[in-house]
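Hi D.,

Good news: the full-assembly prediction came through. Inputs first.
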Amino acid sequence: MSEIKEVMINSDRLATDEYLVNMGPQHPSTHGVLRMLVKLEGEKVLNIQPHIGYIHSGIEKMCEAISYPQIIHLTDRMDYLSAHMNNEAVALCVENALQVEVPDRVKYIRTIMDELARLASHQLWWCVMGMDLGALTTFFYGLRDREMILDIFEETCGARLTVNYNLPGGLMFDIHPNFQKRVKDFITYFRTKLPEYDQLLSGNVIFRERTEGIGHLSLSDAIAYGVTGPSGRASGFSNDLRKHQPYSAYPLVKFNEIIDHRCDTLARYEVRMKEMHESLSIIEQLIDNIPEGDYAVKMKSVIKLPEGEFYQRVETARGEFGVYIVSDGKKNPYRVKFRSPGFSNLFALNKMAKGHKIADLVAIMSTLDLVIPDIDR
Amino acid sequence: MTHDELKTYLIDKFPSAEIALGAQYVQMIVSSVDLHQTAASLKNSKDTSFDYLICLSGVDYPEYMEVVYHLESVDLHHVMVLKVRTSDRLNPAIDTVSDIWIGAKYHEREVYDLLGVHFNNHTDLRRLFLEDGWGFPLRKDYVDEIRIVER
Amino acid sequence: MGFNFYDFTALTHNIHVGLVEGFSPFMATTLEWVIVGTAYLLFVALFGLLLVYAERKVCAAFQQRLGPMRVGYWGLLQTIADFIKLLMKELIMPRKADRFLYNLAPFIVIIASFLAIAVIPFAPGLQSLDFDIGLFYLTSVSSVGVIGILLAGWSSNNKYSLIGAMRSGAQILSYELSVSLSLLTMIIFAGSMQFSTIVEGQRDGWYLFTGHIPSLVAFIVFLIAGTAETNRGPFDLAEAESELTAGFHTEYSGIKFAFFFLAEYINLFIISAVAATVFLGGWMPLHFGHLEAFNHAMDVIPPLVWFFLKVFGVIFIIMWFKWTFPRLRVDQILTLEWKYLLPINLINILLMALIVLTKFHF
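Then the structure:
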């Protein structure tokens, strides 16, 4: 309450017809504890001020007190839907710093798991996108298929969401003997289900009316705000790190970077839908060719990074994830900074939603695919 | 531009800056006075055109406070690291770059929140995650009173 | 008192005669009120529970799941358990709410629904109000409910509630027009506003078939506008949970919330019952012109069964809308009404008038 007053006094004054609404921290469409102070005139959104920090857990501070393999377990808890990619970013960063070359088998498995995680994340996003627009049935269709990926994760890593599958120098365990068969089964199954997604939501007249031309984010704004991932690519911002700075087995596979120049909510939706097809084809190219070999290289029991600074970028389901490690040669880092994609994406919301209706605000937020622990860290 | 080309170009263009080729990227350290001007010219120059600020982080070293800018050019696909240091560790103040890269506005708020670096000319410098009066947890002399991290 | 499952006229008449003979006129009327009132209350409460159960099962079927399964056989007792839970819940009221209006709103909503249900003919003789302006009365009382919704939104002292109520107001006022106009089309065709006459007029074929194109158009428009009137399906803007948490009833709990909930389902029933009566012949069995044998075979099924079969058919279609479509935006909802449905309706009325004048119908 006091904050509302404070904002009313400090920021520009409210005109007679304007009013403030607190969306969140408990609100069905903010997907977590995000609070937005929305200035409205009737139904029209005039200004949005995101307030974050409700689940700030000080991960960067905690990292300074623990060793490098332990950091990986914390990265799961940030963007829990791209848990595997976050793990990989730290593992790659440490490997690059120590100049350790991991076996090809590790690279292949990491890439397959990356794409499975991306698929699972996009499926959940699709469910929730439909739900935010009022089509409640999509939620169950998406979760039905996501369950299969989580089962594959569970079989191999023992966990369904926070997988903790990577280590500096390789993987925790080898893949389960069923892994290849189940992944192939999933691909054939999901290829028949993806058209169903389109039939249910993409082609719907109301859906297209709700999304077309809504939430315009121009290319220059996307770059200036640092909006990456599918959200940025829908504005024509070519930023797929799998293409531009390939890591793991991405140099070996053929895939398209999906770019759309329409810049609106529908474009962001379609980019993600097309990315699901690309992910399937990436997995298909790798799954039969996983080379034999070790699943990890032998590392020292205490990992110490040489003095210096190391930066690693990976492409998560939400955009560019960066790990910046400053080492002073000890077994724990001097400073760790995570560049989370959601953080930059969130703040472009004001630019996109200004002038639209409340219902559009929800739709735009949905296509940004925010995960709040990723923003708050 | 490759890293070497970029390094030669930068040495040519910014003689007063300290430029070195790091393990991964070209690093350039500028003084806090030159920061804003350097950043603007890095972005606006056609040869470099660093229009995408990847990441803005603050690091607290024993003698100085450092703010690190990871920059990329979307068209030219080269990356560099820009650093600025202030010797005043307790009340660090540097110029904002949020008028050059809009996204920096919120990254700067984060750095202000966690490290207490004051950004001059910032339009909305408030705390982002923590309450007012919390202290600056990422500073090395921060006392973890309720022992969240250290046991 | 002979009981006839095909015609309740004798039964209700006998009850009336018995009451008038046994009591003074004043007492007789009072007792009749009490009996009719209790019957409707019981019907509404039980049918509301049944509809909630049906909705959950239908929704589950669309979403590839089973729905409630644990309480009772196939979860049949689930809604009763939910109802008991709602009864026992604490009534919470926002501190700065307008006490009187806040408490009044749920009653207005539910009274409007009860007023409307009075004219629905369930079977021959099973109708409490059958007067010559039946349809007109129905359209007028069914829009009283919006006052309750507006009051609820205003008095809750919550911005989400207010936005929801304003949306609901704009929406119901606009769609009331389409509902009335599509009914007007059928009134022109039937030549009467009295429900019994309308049902009787469909003895040789339902109006949906005999009035061909205009009545088909009117039926579709009525279904769309009716869905919007009940704040359901793709038109549930007033309680859009992803935008306004729960819209106008955000601040209501316990039995007051149950009133809104129940009123929504009664309104669903009323819209479906009106659609079934005006377009699908109400309790009238399916008859085709002069196919005597077929018509007699259809007459074996009691009118009450016919009525509820049709009502549930329409209810299923409306539920189908809800669980398939995304929600419309507030400006789109008004565009749909004022730019599309209203002109279509006006042209449709003209067509119907021409058809009736030229006797170009079956």
